[in-house]
Amino acid sequence: MLVVYTGDSADSTLSVAQAFAAGASRAGASTKLALASEAAYDDVRDWADVVALGSGVINGNADPTLLEFLRYWSFSDDLSAKIGASFATGGGAAAGL
Q: Which residues, given as ranges, of the chain have pLDDT below 50?
């Protein structure tokens, strides 16, 4: 499982990313955590069976760093055998979640 996340000042997104990875590890999966700014699409295509993407919410959108990571995905690659998940963190009741 590859867990790609963005940083935030309270490390909320990192905490959720670590929980994803810990659960997958307990179930026997190999895991990698990667900041979106350091993540590689090659890991999505060639290594991961499961990809989880996480971000804080900024004005109702994902963090621009995560969107930039997604921008470089090759949607001509067959990713149909991959399992995907996503998660979001917010700082308040009206944070866009």
A: none
